[in-house]
């Protein structure tokens, strides 16, 4: 007979782990399904997380699992949720290995994944000297010569953000033509070089970028890159189940992670566009509280003794 968990958490990053911690401490039976391939595995360090600043993503997870293991009602399974059926209180999740698990509630903490950008050489430097978030990696590249690869619509905003870490940066639009004349004028007034031509390649040595070469022959020397990623939710299951999604593919949730589908919650990068490990963890904690509260109210309403 299939065991019915109080909650199945799909995804074992900061959001899923923190939700598991909260629910484990609340004495709920929880299953955390995770394939062990986080988006941030390409990076060497996690930053901006109090008490864990500089820890590697793998070490962060190891410590989290070690601490959660103190709560025996939380189980980890290395697998992928392949399909989900059912309704609130009676969900059935079948994994890639063909195992079906039952659950009263479901938390999607699946994160987002990168859509590979068609830029030759980017994969060689991503996570070593090319990054997407200045709050995560700006300190390490402070005052250095950088190339910002960003479309025109976001270039001015990105430039203003990056100016807190370095004034030595160049905007590379990589062939996009959506920069307004007002933004171009503003950047020019701040002496920010702008290159419109598409990128031919990023040249690097052992993961450290040396320069960006453009199709028109221009060479942009630099020691680091920040670029705007293209992201999609890492699982199609929230949409399949009928969860409301934004135009950018983010799961719509309330302050406790509740989606538009009863019994289904979302947390972390899948449910926000503020991509910080500590933000994901905090959203996981709130979702854990929301799930536990809902389970308790349902039990109370049925007159169960606690």
Automatic annotation (TrEMBL):
Subunit field text: Homodimer.
PANTHER family: THIOREDOXIN REDUCTASE 1-RELATED-RELATED
MF (Gene Ontology): oxidoreductase activity
The entry's keywords: Flavoprotein, Oxidoreductase
This protein's name: Pyridine nucleotide-disulfide oxidoreductase
Cofactor(s) the protein needs: FAD
Originating organism: Paenibacillus pectinilyticus
Start and end residues of each FAD/NAD(P)-binding domain: 5-281
Pfam families named among the record's database cross-references: Pyr_redox_2
Presence of the UniProt keyword Oxidoreductase in the record: yes
């Amino acid at each position: 007979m299939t065991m019915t968990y109080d909650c199945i958490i799909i995804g074992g990053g900061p959001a899923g782990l923190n939700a598991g911690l909260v629910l484990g401490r609340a004495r709920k039976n929880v299953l955390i399904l995770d394939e062990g391939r986080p988006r941030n595995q390409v990076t060497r360090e996690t930053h901006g997380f109090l008490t864990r600043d500089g820890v590697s993503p793998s070490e962060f997870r190891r410590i989290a699992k070690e601490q959660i293991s103190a709560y025996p009602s939380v189980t980890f399974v290395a697998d992928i949720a392949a399909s989900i059926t059912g309704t609130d209180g009676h969900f059935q999740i079948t994994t890639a290995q063909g195992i079906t698990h039952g659950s009263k509630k479901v938390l999607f903490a699946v994160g987002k994944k990168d859509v590979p950008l068609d830029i030759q050489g980017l994969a060689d430097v991503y996570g070593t000297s090319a990054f997407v978030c200045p709050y995560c990696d700006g300190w390490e590249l402070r005052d250095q010569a950088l190339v910002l690869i960003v479309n025109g619509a976001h270039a001015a905003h990105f430039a203003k953000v990056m100016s807190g870490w370095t004034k030595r940066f160049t905007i590379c639009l990589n062939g996009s033509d959506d920069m307004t004349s007002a933004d171009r004028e503003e950047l020019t007034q701040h002496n920010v070089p702008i290159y419109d031509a598409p990128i031919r390649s990023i040249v690097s040595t052992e993961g450290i970028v040396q320069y960006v070469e453009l199709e028109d022959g221009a060479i942009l020397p630099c020691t680091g890159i920040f670029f705007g990623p293209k992201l999609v939710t890492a699982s199609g299951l929230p949409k399949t189940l009928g969860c409301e999604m934004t135009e950018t593919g983010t799961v719509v949730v309330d302050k406790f992670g509740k989606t538009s589908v009863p019994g289904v919650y979302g947390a972390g990068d899948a449910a926000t566009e503020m991509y910080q490990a500590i933000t994901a963890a905090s959203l996981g904690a709130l979702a854990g509280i929301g799930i536990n509260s809902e389970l308790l109210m349902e039990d109370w309403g049925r007159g169960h003794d606690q």
